[in-house]
Every structure is written in C-alpha cells, then in structure tokens.
Amino acid sequence: MTNNIRKRLAATAGVVTLGLGLTVNAVSAENLDEVMARRGLSQQDLLAAAKTYTPSGGRDEFIVFSSGGQSGQVIVYGVPSMRILKYVSAFTPEPWQGFGFDEESKAILESAKVDGREIQWGDTHHPAITETDGDLDGEWLFINDKSAPRIAVISLHDFETQQIVVNPIMQSEHGGAFVTPNSEYVIEAAQYPGVLGRGFAPLSEFNEKFRGAVTYWKFDREAGRIQPGQSFSLELPPYSQDLSDAGKGVSEGWSFTNSFCAERYVGGIELGRPPFEAGCSQADTDFLHVINWRKAEEVYKAGKVTMINDHPVIMMDTAIAEGLVYLIAEPKSPHGVDVSPNGEYIIVGGKLDTHGSVYSFSKIQAAIEAGKFAGTDPYGLPIIAMEDAIHVQVPLGLGPLHTQYDSRECNVFTSLYVDSQVVRWDYCEGKVLDKISIHYNIGHLVAMEGEGVNPKGKYLISLNKLAIDRFNPVGPLHPQNHQLIDISGDKMELLYDMPIPLGEPHYATAIAAEKLKPLVRYRYGTNSRTGGKHEGAVRPGQERIERDGTHVKVYMTAIRSHFTPEIVEVNEGDTVEFIVTNSERAEDETHGFAVSTYNVNLSLEPGKTATAKIVADQAGVFSFYCTEFCSALHLEMTGFLVVKPEGYQEASAEISEGTSYTQADYDKQYQTNLDTQAVIDSVVAYITGRNFKDFPEVVSLVEDAVDQLNFAAEARAKAEETAQAGDWQNATLWAGQWWQYQVKAADIGLRAKTFLDEHGAVVVE
Ligand code: CUK
Ligand code: CUA
Fold this sequence. Notes:
about 775 residues; alpha+beta; Methylamine Dehydrogenase, Chain H; Immunoglobulin-like; six-stranded mixed sheet; 12 helices; about 35% strand; binds [4Cu:2S] cluster; binds dinuclear copper ion
C-alpha cells in the first residue's frame, strides 16, 4: 500500500511538472452502426437511449421521491437517467445510514411505536413534498405508512427522517400524505374502519361503533415538525376512505377524500358468506367526501370537539350542523382523486368503472349554496347528486386508477390498471387523445410536478404492479418496474424500464432538481436526526473518556484515518456510549463506526455527531472500525474496546508491540517526508497559480488540505521533539503520522487539480 501511494505521488509530481491533464483512449473503434447490429438495437432504441443516457458527471433534470412500499423507505432517483440515488429510511432500520442503530434515530423509531408496540416495518404509499402557493418547494417530504397509521417527516436538506407521528385514533390509514397548498396541514385519511381510538366493539355493531376519519396534521414550517397539539380530525362514516387530495386555487380550503365499500360489508367467507371483494363491490357507487377544512379548523379552534386519546375529533353531528362534510356519489370502487392545477376540477377513477369522472368544484359549491341535496346517508351527511357535480365523464378504458396533470392545458394522464395502459385525455373537452401500453398493470403514475399548480410535463413514469418478463429472472419474487415515458410530443413514447428491488412503490412525486438545495456537509457537531446541535460533539483535542459509576461516555472524533481515542477500556457490565463526531470538512468523507459483536454501525457524514450505546455485558476484546472506505489507510482506521472480565487484575500496564524502530528508521522516514513535501509544494503551486477561488468546490478542498498540512506540522513537531530525546520508537511513528497527513493533503490536492483541469481553470498572475 505504501508503495502504491509513493507511486501515486510520483505520478502526481510528473503530471504537475509536465502539465499533462488529459489522456485519449484510442482503443474503442466500433462505430454506432456496428454496436446497433451487435446488440440488435433499432433506431427507436437509439433515440430512447439518447434521451435517457446521462454521461459521467451529468445531472438529472428531475428528482423522483418514490414510496418504497413494504421496505418502509423512500426511493430517490433521477429523471431521465432513472439512476437510483438514495434510499431514505423512514419506518425501518437501515444500517448503511445508521438509521435505527444510532441513539438519535432510535429515539425517532421509539416515538413511532403504536400503543407501545414496536413496528418493524412500514407500508409506504404516498410521498408529498411541501408546497408554497401550491407549487412544490422541495423543503420537506412526508410519507405515510398504511400498515400502522403513521406519517414520517423527512428533511430535504439532508434527506433524513426527523419525525414520525402516530395517528391517535385510526387503526389503519391510506389517504396520506397530501399537503394543503401552503403546507399548513398534512392530510391523512383512514382506510379500513375501526373503533376510533383503536378500541373494541363486536362486528355486529359495525354500523354503530366503527368509523372512518380524516386527520389534519398541523405542519410548522419554521420548526420542520408536525405539531400534534395543533392537529385535529373529523369523524367519518365507516366507508373505507381511500385517497385524498387538497383543493387549491378556487378550491383552496377544501379537501377531497374518496372511499370504497360504502356498502359497509364486514366479510365472513368462512361463515359461508360472500367474501369482502363481493360485498364491497355490489353497489354502483361509493362516496367522494368533500370537506371544508378551513371551516373545520375554526370549529376545532372553537373547541367543538370530542377528545379521543387526547386528540380533538369533530364528530359527525357537529360536522353536519356546521356544514363541514358533503358526500357525492362516485363510480363503483373509486381509487384516485386528483385536483387540477387551477383547483376547479377533481378527477376520480373508478376501478370497476371505465370512466374518468371530472367533478366541477363550482358546481359542487353551487349545490351546497343552494342547499340542493339528493338526500342524506345513513349517518345524516348531505349527499350531492352526481349530475349536479359532474363536469364530464369520459370513457377511458378498463380500470382507471390515478391521474396526473400535464403542462399542456386540459391534458391529463390516467393509469388503466386492467388494460395495462396509460391514457392521455382532455378533461375540459372530454376526449381521449392517445394511449400507450405498459408492462404490466400500472398502479400510480407520476408526471413531473404533476400534482402541483405548475406541472412541468416532459416525462411520465408508470409505476407498474407486475414486471413478468421484463428483466433477467431472479426467482419467483420479481422486481417492480418503473417505466419512463416521453410525453413531450403528441404520441407518448416508452423510453426506459427501471427495476426496483426493494418493495412495491405506490405513488411517487417528482420535482425539478434545481428546486432542491441539499447540504454538502453538516455544520460541525450536528445531530442529523434533529437538525440541531449535538451536545456531545467534540473538536479534535477535546476527546475524552468520562466515567460515572458504571456509565462510560467516550467523546470521540473520526478523521482520515483514525479514531481518537483508539483504546477504550471498560468493565464487564458497564454501559458504554460512543459519541462520535466526524471532524472532516471534506465533501463525501463519511466514516462509519462499527463495533464487532455489539450490533453497532454508525454513519458519520462530515460534521455529524452520532451515538452508539451498548451494554458491555460480554467480556472480551472487540475491534471497532470504520465501515466506509474513506482513505488509503481506511483498514487501519480501527481501535479496541477492551471489556475486562469482572474481578480482572492487570499484571502490567505496558503495551507490548510487534516492531521496534531505530534512528536509521527515523532518518529514512524523515527523508521521505521531505521528498513528499516537495511534491505537495508543486501541487500547491499548480493550484494557486490558477483561478481556484472561482470554484467553491476547490476552495473547500484547499481548506481541507490546509487542515491536513497543519496536522502534519503538529506531528512533525512531535517527531522532532521525541527524536531530540532519543526516543527513536515514538519519533519514527510520529514521523510516519506526519507522512500520513501529507498523503491526505496530496490526495486532496490532486482532486482539486483534476477539478480545475476539468472545469477550465485559467492561469493567473
Ligand atoms: S394506492 Cu397503490 S396503486 Cu396506496 Cu395510492 Cu393506488
Ligand atoms: Cu474512515 Cu474508513
């Protein structure tokens, strides 16, 4: 390894002195026609490739946040390249990011317990990005968990989950997460009816005791947190509420939640009764719930609520008296409900109906104002006749589910589950424009910012339920398939298939990449799970081990390529907290921290502080080490946790080592370091001889290199001091450490030089 570094440094020196920057690869002689023939590609394929191919270092125009289905995570990928960029852990532990392994994220998962129960997974369905005036703003992301009624709040500054709230009254949900146009509220509607507050009632009392609900979670933008104390719910009938969407523009202040199984069937196939699927699809219509949330907020603030599990609920009789909830019939087993960019239209797909039903908000308002109702449901909620609310119904195909809006006026895309197609249609005129087949069985679909007030068009992604024959077989469990479709022309064109091997995504949301402003590094000593300062953060030189009875706290730093301290001695039975701060400033210099046997792995991005807490109940000597290949001496980034058996008495405190060093060793290392410094000086001259200050990336690399050279100077002083005292052992080792810092500085310098070369830096006087 040492030789390799020497060679690399020598090469750096060569490049610098000769001024060589580029090498040309003259080997690849195959031309495009030959590649097409060899791989059996058509012109169409080449066109698709050219539309999606993103050269090394290239960026995507849009970023997609997809539900990760049963993984309880969020999948982040780019469009049009369809390259996966990250999995964000939300409801489930994920070791690479340390989520569920550091104490800080364990606290989040602790708060995600349902009635004291740990839920080890999540069924994520609908991500939603915060909006400002109905426009996606890229600051925060919400995602729901259908299995347990929960919403996670993810910071888009660092793509980390910072909060999970548990719905206090629902036993299952589905119609979350959807945000109001200024992210005042995050909407979460129930799915399967239950006794509000998760209580018991016999199924024989289903009509009387079981209920649905919708919760409006107050979001505090400043704090980046849902405020449960300012949130409220509405009691709804025990129809299985399904998806929701918030009104905007003319319908701002209202929200829409549809439902299925308005038949209120309770199943019982084992009793000889027809199953749920029969009992829940008998009637021709279900109900769209139209809710005046702005008014409901006033009713809640006026205290006209019933507290269930300490949570304020507006009961149905209050909702009826105050005019908060209206029902409208909607076609058999509806699914998606999607509000148009101007807020006037609400499009519903009926799974067992062939129509896209376009409701008009102004017609709905006219009916409400005129008090024109077709009757009431069994709970007394007013029903608006469908013909009084419908703008147009358009036959689209079999199994219309979800709808997304295009940048073209009046254009929408609806998924057809049974037909395995996407249909583009005009919802103003009510006519079908184009169809494309997908493979196979589409659920949701996502257009670029297709749910905001300003849809971007260009691309559509079909989130398919089955992949069947699209990929190399990997056993009976197939990956999911996201298909990218070009919607910029009049004919939709299929561009790309992306397998997703993590869980079944439901919805995804896409935002222009330029709207996202993620951090490159943390402010020094950040607790990433709160976004605030970590009280246990230390700077280099402040590291220490503190003992309070049997509780040991290790305040540690990590930097290429060592932890401080490296030897931690504790007694069997002690509780040990490793509070580790990554003291790097360099971009992407993440360290890991794993302790063998003790189920510990932290992810420490530059500037982050995280805690691993263990009970050292097994005596022995356990290595801790860095789990990210962070530097040439990454493997050496290690230490020992010594857990002394109860009653153990040490014979000698002297550490016995394998190798001893002489003055000759010291002199040799010393000379190497002087030679290395000459190389570094030439790299520095190259960089400072150019307009590097015009490149912020290079400026931060230079700062990091200067840090390393300062460390090198400190190590050099120690080496010379110990040499003076004739301690050749420590003098040689300190000289070696001095060289380590030089190597890091040279490595960073080389990166800076490459960056300057690639970005056209110019020579300055
Ligand atoms: S749902 Cu799965 S395809 Cu949860 Cu929005 Cu429609
Ligand atoms: Cu730090 Cu590997």
